[in-house]
Amino acid sequence: MQLKKNKILFWIIIISISVYLIIHFNKYKIDNSTGNVKLFLTEFTNESAGESIDKVFYLSRIADSNTWLAQIQFESGDYGFVHFKQGWNQKLQFISLNKEPDVTYREYKTNKGKYGVVLGQNLNGEIAKIKITTVSNQEYFIDVSNETVFMKFKKLTNNKQDMFPTKFTFYDNDNNLLD
Question: Counting beta carbons within 10 angstroms of the beta carbon of residue 13, is it exposed (0 to 12), middle (13 to 18) or buried (19 or more)?
Fold first, then answer.
């Protein structure tokens, strides 16, 4: 009788592991390369949004975490970013696609902590530096002087939570304030 219970328990464990693996591999199925991400996004946007992706500028992992971001440009000229999670099979799961204003700030909880991310474009090259001021008046500067599109990460400490709304102040190469 004990042998029969052990066999049943063994098969329950095998079936449970198999179901878990099938679900995991179906969720995390995008290879983490720019070409594969662009292919996925092209298929996704054509099916759901009717707008095609023109370029993938960056596919970046946030500080060796399980969170990836891609900065993109649509054929319409609008910019956006895509959020992915990485599974233990090293493949990505699509989380969200967002259009962005010229500069935007987002926060992401990763398996390595919380990160603030500034994304945007500097198409005319006027912006050299951006000052980020949080709701709690904390200030950070990022250099974007040689970048037409940018994605910058900053690890947030435990006491720096929910830094919205965020104010941006833009400076040129001579530290003059830009309107």
Answer: exposed
